[in-house]
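Email to the structure team, subject: M14 family metallocarboxypeptidase model.

Hi all, the expression group asked for a predicted structure before they design truncation constructs. Nothing fancy, just the tokens so they can compare against earlier work. One-line instruction: predict M14 family metallocarboxypeptidase, return tokens.
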Amino acid sequence: MSNNDAAYPIGEVGKVWGQAERDAWLSRQVRRRSYEADVLDAIDRLRARFDLSEYGRLDYAPESFPLFAVRSPSWRDDLPSMLVTGGVHGYETSGVHGALCFAEQHMADYAGRANILVAPCVSPWAYERIQRWNPDAIDPNRSFHENSRSGESAALLRLVAPLRGRFLMHIDLHETTDSDEGEFRRALAARDGKVFVPGEIPDGFYLVDDAENPQPGFQQAVLAAVSKVTHIAPADADGKLIGSPVVVPGVIEYAVKGLGLCAGITGARYTTTTEVYPDSPHATPEQCIQAQVAAVRAGMDYALAHA
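Reply from the structure team: attached below.
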């Protein structure tokens, strides 16, 4: 039996998970790295240069996770605002560390030109367990909507709410990994009582534009910058990436707000979701981080030039 044919060890086709299945899934999750050491310590090192705010706390007994955002120190109402989010899916490592790297090395470059808000690790429990979901088997990146059952999503929505409609740009940093196919899509099918249908993981970087507000020039500017760091994913034999038609090389479109995706929370003119492929034999972990940084900088530069 091939890996793609193997049944997920929890649940059965035709039956949506109940509490027993969710408990069984949760019992399999193991802490593999430290949010405090990897993320909170890095954020704390920015304290002298930027404003830090604890915008929420996730209580998953016996653990508790403070949620922090990094802000421009001199926020001005006359400047355009930019949002950078990472770690909505905690296992997508370069999203977290790309956001932190941008804040540490480049955020100050935009002083006096833009207000910047960075939420580098939206899902710390999942970061520690290299997991896509939160402990309730909920995907935060399908949960950005009113009365969200995801604490991660609800906290970020509360953070952004006072500024909604004032953001010029929002870039949400993600990865597409081999584990998407080997674990996470398989778990999703099992959770929802569906048959798992194998897909194909793109080899390279690509972007997800908003189908209801496409900004092709913005997407192309981001891709041009990233292509200097790592390769752009080619379409598959059907002209698609992860099952969606490629609208231009390296770009697909989702209706981000309707799907409850993070990229839909601000109402910004310019939005995108990055997708880095860390399992490529042609990319290193550092390249993946730098690709995220290049995407953030290019997105901000384009947005400011076309404000």
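Residues 3-305 form a domain with the Aminopeptidase fold (CATH 3.40.630.10). The CA atoms of residues 207 and 274 lie 5 Å apart. Ping us if the truncation boundaries need rechecking.
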